[in-house]
Amino acid sequence: MARQSSDTYYTHTGTLCNGYDYRNQAWVRNGKYEACGHTGPCTCFGKKWQGTWCAVTREENEEVA
Length: 65
Known about the structure:
Helix content is about 15%, strand content about 20%. By secondary structure, it is α+β, with helices and mostly antiparallel strands. A 4-stranded antiparallel β-sheet has the order 1-2-3-4.
């Protein structure tokens, strides 16, 4: 059974616009990574890469189960 999500992708690049990057386990808003929201020291991908552009495509995101 395929995962159901409401992720949206840019039509011109095919990259994730809004949703969850399953490979890196981080939220994406307007094409950029969001901070994880954890308090205290954290090594989450979202906190480390907050504000950088996401390059994950629909195909790459759907590969991760």
